[in-house]
Design a protein that fits this description.
This protein is mainly α and 415 residues long. It has 13 helices and nine strands. α2 packs antiparallel against α4.
């Protein structure tokens, strides 16, 4: 795959991905407008909704001018909460594209074409749907999607095994891929031994804790929706939506489902989350005000002290068990550290820092503004979430590390 071909493929894939995501939103909205519309709503509004949903998924905030709905005035406000369901779809398709481009003999044309095309589409969409009531920044729709898409295909194209259509199909490996991997290896080798030896096993523990928390969050939400199906149906009926309207509403809820799963992770840590100013949802107490009438919100967890303590044990038990299971990955640490205490402390601190950093990153992308007034912020306090998770990984991982990360003392230990 030469430079010209990689350039064309990346640009074409960016076009296909953006069209796919826009189509997923636009198709049901168009059907609802065509079949059930009474002519009072212009089709341009449908295009605007799809366009703004696409831009939000790419991380572009959308500003709504002051106005009134049903004679109720509201001030200017911004929606910045990313619908992570759509964002995740874009990311998966972009990563798949980047992996396939790893077979190219030159990668920089693909990086340039992919990011420029995706950014250009974002800018074109924002230009086509501009209006007086809703707006986006002047250049944000160009640069933010371009950076988002370009970074994903860059990472996917230089990491992992090269894509190969069939055995022997690939030519020489791209110089950019070799250079980036060599640079990362050199940076890793320059790390102090105390960090280099502990980084890999500690990262496994931090990632496993986060993965377990999101799995438990998903299971808890599924159980809550299963047991609360009557309330879910009642909310759908109360909204008096048609079949197509229900489909559109369901797609919208699927778009924010990953956000709610991350909120569930924060709930498991004890930090909790908020759905608007003045609200708080934690394992120990729940205080909610008026909320959007989304049926999926029936899965928001509520808890009392006794049951809440059990859920907070999930990340702690996971950190303890994960530390026990990574024993075979700590052989290098046993050579370098002189005492159990120093080895266990270095391991647990590194695992806790990695887990806390991931938690902070997830809370930042899942939170934001969702409307005027009290909905100026929904989501998670990132510092509280990260701080609590740091302690919940640090303590059990340290205790388990005292057992499994025992330095070698004689030849018998090294067998």
């Amino acid at each position: 795959m030469n430079r010209g071909l990689s350039f064309v493929i990346a640009a074409l894939q960016a076009l296909i991905i953006s069209a796919t995501v826009l189509g997923i939103v636009l198709a049901p909205l168009t059907l609802a407008w065509f079949i059930e519309g009474d002519g009072s709503v212009d089709y341009g509004v449908v295009l605007q909704v799809a366009g703004y949903a696409f831009l939000l998924a790419c991380g572009v905030p959308v500003t709504f001018a002051a106005g009134e709905i049903i004679d109720i005035p509201f001030p200017e406000f911004v929606i910045s909460t990313m619908p992570l369901g759509m964002t995740l779809l874009i990311a998966l398709l972009a990563i798949r594209t980047g992996h396939r481009l790893s077979a190219a003999s030159s990668l920089w044309p693909a990086w340039l074409a992919g990011s420029a095309t995706f950014g250009g589409i974002g800018f074109l969409v924002s230009w086509l749907i501009r209006g007086d009531a809703v707006s986006v920044g002047e250049f944000e729709p160009l640069f933010i999607p371009a950076l988002f898409f370009g970074l994903l295909i860059f990472i996917a194209s230089v990491s992992g095994k090269r894509y190969e259509l069939f055995s022997g199909a690939n030519g020489p490996e791209a110089k950019e891929r070799i250079a980036v991997r060599a640079l990362l290896l050199a940076l890793y080798e320059k790390l102090h031994w105390s960090i280099r030896t502990v980084l890999s096993p500690a990262a496994r523990v931090g990632i496993v804790v986060l993965a377990t928390m999101i799995l438990v969050s998903a299971m808890a939400m599924a159980v809550a929706l299963g047991f609360g199906w009557i309330e879910v149906v009642s909310l759908y009926e109360a909204m008096r939506v048609s079949i197509l309207g229900g489909v559109v509403l369901t797609i919208g809820q699927l778009a924010i489902l990953p956000n709610l799963l991350i909120y569930g992770m924060a709930w498991l840590s004890g930090a909790g989350f908020s759905i608007g100013a003045g609200s708080s949802v934690t394992p120990f107490a729940t205080q909610l005000g008026p909320m959007p009438a989304f049926p999926i919100f029936t899965a928001i967890p509520t808890g009392e002290l006794e049951r809440g303590v059990l859920f907070v044990l999930v990340p702690m038990l996971t950190a303890f068990l994960a530390t026990l299971l990574v024993r075979r990955h700590t052989k290098q640490m046993r050579w370098e550290y002189a005492t159990r205490f120093s080895a266990a402390l270095a391991f647990s601190v590194t695992a806790a820092v990695i887990g806390a950093a991931l938690a902070i990153g997830l809370s930042l992308i899942a939170s934001g503004s969702f409307g005027p007034g009290r909905f100026g912020f929904i989501g998670i306090d990132p510092l509280l979430f990260g701080g609590l998770l740091f302690l919940e990984i640090l303590i059990p991982s340290f205790l388990a590390g005292l057992v499994v990360i025992r330095p070698y003392v004689d030849a018998e230990d090294r067998k």
